[in-house]
Structures are given as C-alpha cells and as structure tokens.
Fold Berberine/berberine-like domain-containing protein.
Amino acid sequence: MATSMLSHTQAEASMRPILDFAKDVGVTSNQSLSSFPRFKEFMQDLVKRTTSSVDRVVQNIAMSSCIVPLGNFQGMANKTTLTEALNNIALAGGDPSVPPIFLVCITAPSLYTRRLPETDQKGGPGYSSVTPAWRDGLWHVIYVQSWPEELDPSAVENIWEETSETMNILRHLTPGGGAYQNEAGAFEPDPVGAFWGMDNYARLSRIKKDLDPENVLTVHQGVGWKKQDPRYTCYPKVSA
C-alpha cells in the first residue's frame, strides 16, 4: 500500500483504524509505515521486504483477480454485499493440504492521484490502453490456488476451473470492474472488457493489424488472440 497524496502524519491517521482492527482480531503480527523521498527508494525497500519474506517457491499456481470499483463501497447496502462476497471467496474450497491464497490489495491508481492529468485523458498524447476500470478502482482482489507436485491434466483443469469460478462471485458483483492484466486469471471470461475496454481494444486491434497482419506475434488472450488457434492446444480446457 502506498500513496503520494498524504504526509507521513496524515498516513498514520488514515491507516490507524484498520491497523488497530487487524491487531485486535489477531490477523497481523507485523505493521510498519515508512516514507520515502523518491519512488526508487520505495521500490528498493519493497523488493527487499518481498525477497526476505519468501520461504518457499510454488511453481504451479492458478490465479484469478478482479478490480473493485469505488461504487461498491458507497452506501451500507453495497458494503454489506461486498463483505459477503469477499467472505465467500475467502472461505472457498481448494486442496486442504495447500490452502488457497486470498489477497485484497489496496494499491489501485486512485491512491496515487486525485485527478488524471488532461494530457493522459482520452484523446490526449499520454492516453493509455489500460482498462478504464482502473481509474475508478479502489481494491484489487486476487485468489490463488497452488499444487506442489505434478498432477493429472484433468486435475489441473479442475483447479483452474475452480479458481476462475470462485472469482465469478466478485465479477458478477462488479460489472465493468475489469482486471489487472499482470495478475489476472489466464482464463478471464471477458479478456477484452477486463483488460482494455472495447474502445481501447479497437484502437489496439488497428495497430496490431498494421504491424502484424499475419498475427505471428500472438499470446493467450492478447490482442488479436483467437481461441481456435492451434498454438493454444496445450492450454487446459477451462470454460471460466
């Protein structure tokens, strides 16, 4: 969690209620709040903390994620519904020997700026192809299942299916919420809408056709991706 919009004192006051709550219910054993003069120092510290906290490597993982828009936090009814959905995801199944990982990341772009610069708005020279849902997103929710050893392909397909279906609980609650592409499910049911939005995808498709008319450079669920392409026959058959 990071923001450039608060001083250290303001950040302490802002985070105090949730840190006190986490401490009282016993769900955290380590809390810290630091300020950095530049983004470089922040990233160096983040990498150091992440590297030192990794005690095992799991190579086989299935992941799905969803961006939760600001509107889902407005009003008690929406808050209650969102809480119930997150609780259902947290209590979802999986292999008891390898418990699922459930993350709620408070790292959306809305914490970094209150207003998108005019040059970066639609039609401006800095306009990005990132999903517009990020501009109004507040939380980034991730659900991960892993398996430490080799499994039968059908079992792997089931894990991917369960992982995607579990996130459907939140997808149905956040229509148009999208997903952060770097940590999205490999079988996102709506990759165009989730990763870019229709307007952005149309623009990207035009660029793709100009630069790669034969679609040589293709990736799973990327721009110009075709599910029937024989190059993707190695992927599990997940309906999402």
Q: What stands out?
A: The chain is about 35% helix and 10% strand. The chain has a mean pLDDT of 86.
